[in-house]
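Response to reviewer comment R2.3. The reviewers asked that we include at least one raw input/output pair. We reproduce the pair for M3 family oligoendopeptidase here without editing.
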Amino acid sequence: MLNLPFPVRDANAARGADNLGDLPEWDLSDLYTGEDAPELARDLDWLEGECAAFAADYEGNLGDLDAAGLLTCVERNEKISAIAGRIMSFAGLRYYQLTTDADRAKFMSDMQEKITIFTTPLVFFTLELNRLEDDHLAALLDQNADLARYAPVFRRIRAMKPYQLSDELEKFLHDLGVVGDAWERLFDETIAGLTFTVDGEELNIEGTLNLLTEQDRAKREAASRELARVFGENIKTFARVHNTQSKEKEIVDRWRGMPTAQTGRHLSNDVEPEVVEALREAVVAAYPKLSHRYYELKRKWLGLDKMQVWDRNAPLPMEDTSVVNWAQAEKTVMDAYAAFDPRMGELAAPFFSKGWIDAAVKPGKAPGAFSHPTVTDVHPYVMLNYLGKPRDVMTLAHELGHGVHQVLAADQGEMLSSTPLTLAETASVFGEMLTFRKMLDVAESPEQRKILLAGKVEDMINTVIRQIAFYDFECKLHAARREGELTPDDINALWMSVQAESLGPAFEYMDGYETFWAYIPHFVHSPFYVYAYAFGDGLVNALYSVYAAGAEGFEEKYFDMLKAGGSKHHKELLAPFGLDASDPKFWDKGLSMISEMIDELEAMEG
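Raw output as returned:
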């Protein structure tokens, strides 16, 4: 999240841009024009003063407020969140554009520290809110409809009530948060600073990982071995980050009395542990009929006795390797969105025309892709590392789905717009599905259809099977860390224990693959985040089957679901579609869609 007045490209990025067309860059001026913007100084001053005033006005008094008084209090708290969110969005986005820039890193760190200091006096708010009696709060909500709108926020805050510590300890933990952030930054900067040499060409991690989808098998192998070499050289750093982060989490969880390492994530996702367990069990049980079966097909297509890890995301031998330029990608996704509902196309259009997307691969830019919602009175920003692969088009469809969802939910306001991770993937995966189905409809030959189906199955396996395997790895990692320090070899062994189970007997594993846990950012930034991808994919597959069956009024219900943001529980959101995620059969419905696609691929083999 940082600031640069000019585009940054190296020769390779510039050469790629020639093939790909005019790749958009962020215009962050909708947040602030620069780190020295007078509006930023004004907002920092306001934030410091308002946090102090808020604490002076309300600390120790929350229980005495009437309904109107509590509403004013909540609205002031929401405004504080909005201003702090705007500042951190600006600092963070600038940083991700160029993580290797020391000034940007310092600016983000300075902003984080200031905001932590300013907001520490506000820790009392949720603590005192949780001390209100249920009957008292219910009576206040009954008296004031505007206050009652915040009931879902209160419910989620009060879910933490059993795990709340003393006011003093909560303030201490709030202050200590910047230390955990420093370990995350160490991870980010280490990853962004790694260089890999493949066939004499020096690449960053994003460029090297991209080679794993090259048609040339020797190039894929060279990239895999180079990734293993570089991860191996840095494995002590990555192991230290994971040991420290998981130990810090264990200490906080123990003090809070949380029953499992996953409890905090389930609470923040507003999802019941048994629902997540039902998802996990359904996916693990489906490994043989999904990933094992598909990779056996792929092994035959590739003409191999055994697949190596560098074959997992290999293109099929008959696959078209031509590059999809940016204009084609935009048209493909926009056509699919508009065909579902013209409103979807209208919501997506400004992302392309107003500097809301940063698409090019650049040196020092953070790897991966995301859509950051910033704050509800601005708009989201989408980050891509676009290299013109068909999968990059799907990534655009995915992140744009997030962006549309975030735009629609913004009317809920700062405290109610944010969707739990389990539902946050809904619009993104649905956007991918719309794009995929549109491409399938216009497939010109059985071979093209086969390539599209295989690509979609692979994406679903990566989203469902791989992410649940990641989740199992994390569960094992955090359980093992509770018993003591983990060596790199310990972590490597945990990683390998989930890989063979999930990928199946078609694979062999090169020496060095055991270190590939090292680069996954979710493990460091958001422990147990990964199951949300599988949750979202399963949910969307079930949702899409309702849409494909021609359910009346689906589009309107779908827009209502996205507009709800975080104001409703998953049961309420899915009920209009006749779906229920707490029903174990629900997950089988989603997984059967993947299985049916593999059935079709097998049938094509004759």
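DSSP finds 27 helices and five strands in the chain. Residues 1-17 have pLDDT under 50 and may be disordered. Further pairs are available on request from the corresponding author.
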